[in-house]
Amino acid sequence: MKYMPNAQDFPFLAKGGEMGRLIQQTDWNNSPLGPIESWETSLRATLGIVLSCPFPMFLLWGEDLLCFYNDAYRPSLGVEGKHPAIGKKGREVWADIWDFIGPLIDRVIRTGESVSFQDQLVGFYRNGRMEDIYWTFCYSAVFDDSGKINGVVITCTETTDTVVTRRKLEESERRLRSMILRAPVSIAILQGPDYVVEIANNKSLQIWGRSGEEVLGQPILEAMPELKTQGIEAILDEVYSTGKIFSTAELPVQLHRNGKLETAYVNFSCEPLFNSSGEIDGIMAVGIDVTEQVMSRQKILESETLFRAIADNIPNLAWMADADGWIYWYNKKWYEYTGKTPEEMEGWGWQSVHDPNVLDTVLTKWKHSLKKGEPFEMVFPLKGKDGRFRQFLTRVLPLYDEHGKIVQWFGSNTDIEDQKSFRDELEKQVKERTAELLKLNESLKKSEERYHLMVEEVQDYAILYISKEGIVENWNTGAQKIKGYPAAEIIGRSFSNFYTEEDRKRGLPMTLLNKAIEKGKATQEGWRVKKDGSRFWASVVITAVHNDQREIIGFSKVTHDLTEKKEAADALEAKKTELEEKNAELQRMNKELQSFAYISSHDLQEPLRKIQTFASRIIEKEYASLSDKGRELFNRMQRSAEQMQALINDLLAYSRTNTAEHVYQKVSLATVIERIKQDLREELEEKQGEIILKTDVEVNVIHFQFQQMFYNLISNSIKFSRPGTPLRIAVWAERVSGTSIPVKHLPHDRDYWHIQVRDNGIGFEPEYNERIFELFQRLHGKSEYKGTGIGLSIVKKIAENHGGNISASGQPGQGATFDIYLPVERM
């Protein structure tokens, strides 16, 4: 019967759990370690520590780096992964990541120094697929009984969930900040009891009249000292101390912007921000600038006040109703005559002052006017506050909006009780006066609109009148805005104050006046000086003003601030110089790349060929003298040299896609495919492969690059064909509109050739659709499929060189599809 050790015989396995039992059940007699009872004390002691540790640990022991691990490490190997790996060689178990961990293990064994990483990406195969896994781990040396380093112990923790969660949080924070910065309302985050500005979006900076550098990281009341005396500090303190939300509409705030204090009206709210402990640690301030709406309403109120003042002082009773006839306003004369209150008269309350015998007729005619939108005119009695009725001539006219829709009615009642004999004439006068009043009201409204429009238009220009001697006599608001002087400070002074010291010394102001005298007009561009001493770039037009006798009596001077245009022109010139320098640098780098290509194709390959040649000669002539190990090493050396040769050739091909001349010519797709069939005849026959060209097109391309593209794609299909299944590669092409292609960054206002290459090979996971084109990207181990990971990178570069694009899609076991989009005409 086979001897099976137990935990009592070997205490170091007693607390080893599942892995300890697995070690007991393993037959070690034929392993390099021999039976358990012969193991070194150091190995037993180390395994005792590893197996009983609650943290994931892995041990690689001996020359073959045999694998041991504890129960805590077991879940990291997945459900369909590398478990059980106990007693297996480390290089075999971790072949997929040995290129990464092998050098680390060699370093620890060679130097005895520990190696550690935090949140390191080390992906390997588990759970039936390749997974990206992040680790925090430490590699430490382990000594045998003689004191010699004989292994490596690995203490590790998988941090994939932590890394993914942290990245999601960072992305979430980035999106939140982006939303705040781009929000259409003012949003600011103020931190701590000093209300330090942590975030202020573009709308906030626009309302405050500040730049980000002026406020970010500063206490808000220090960055904007004008707020200290306006009660803002008390509002912030109340929210911060009580946690109550403050909200108000049309809050007037004085802000220092555009070089002066301006009053802004803001719909404003403050909300407390809480930390993870539930304590208030900041405030979010939200504001909407409603200055324009408030000012517009104030203007409307001013206009309405003016209108009512006029209406209250006419000798007629007057009133206004909405489109449905609901009367909402009477003038003062109405209340003086009727003795009624506004509450009694509102709406249809006016019926109480009408004669009941006539009221039905009045109502019928008034409702007819409302329905038809026609003017109303009628004579009927109204009762005064003394209880007596007097005859009134009543006329009501509809008022329309810009769309021709009735929005209100204007009515007037004229007392004609004492003028019955002159009724016809009086009716005519009332009609004319009412029309004049409406016309005057409309004219006033239009005049006010034109005046405000003119002021707004002219504020971008400084317009002034100067005397023959150059003294400023008149000054508009645009001049104050541009030059900074109020009219009172500049009228009576020489206009030369706006010119720089250099221009005044060379007499430029008077030169311009003399030129205007001689030619009628003088124009000039140059630097001018504002009141605060700062400079601005101005376009100036000075025109001579004449009297009826054609004598010059003064000058008009119009100045336009073109500072932004000047700065943009200067920046454009600087950008042009920068681009020229970068172009020269690009040409230099291109020459260096060509030199590198030459070295790659000659100097680097020459010693490589010698290595291959010498290795071949040794194997041919000294084969019998070599040991099996020596033959294996020479074979491995030749394979490595061949891999290096392929890598150099692929790198050279990749570099040529950038440096080669782009000479376009018409090429038949069928010709290209036929050439590739000849070049890859043996490989296709080996795979029982067939290339099927479904449609032929003639494309305008760089011939050798186009040939290289399809050579790489078809070689790729051959390399990744399914064993035992005849290879089928289908190629077809069609002309499509740019609006129908799925590639967003390509121009959609042109047509493209859509060329598709599809095979029935091993395919790949959809998650690698993009990564498959990355330089040196490999989805399989070198031992499974040969290659350098550059072929598809070359394909993508060639597509981009033609102004096009390539994408890939696939499913494991179902083949791969490559979609190429190339412009129909040369770009």
UniProtKB/TrEMBL annotation:
InterPro entries: HATPase_C_sf, HATPase_dom, His_kinase_dom, HisK_dim/P_dom, HisK_dim/P_sf, PAC, PAS, PAS-assoc_C. Signal peptide: none annotated. This is histidine kinase. The lineage of its organism: Bacteria, Pseudomonadati, Bacteroidota, Cytophagia, Cytophagales. Residues 599-826 form the Histidine kinase domain. The keyword Cell division does not apply. Residues 423-450, 562-596 form a coiled coil. It comes from the Bacteria. Residues 247-302, 374-428, 522-574 form the PAC domain. Its EC number is 2.7.13.3. PANTHER family: PAC DOMAIN-CONTAINING PROTEIN (PTHR43304:SF1), PHYTOCHROME-LIKE PROTEIN CPH1 (PTHR43304). The keyword Kinase applies. Keywords: Coiled coil, Kinase, Phosphoprotein, Transferase. Residues 303-347, 447-520 form the PAS domain. It catalyses: ATP + protein L-histidine = ADP + protein N-phospho-L-histidine.
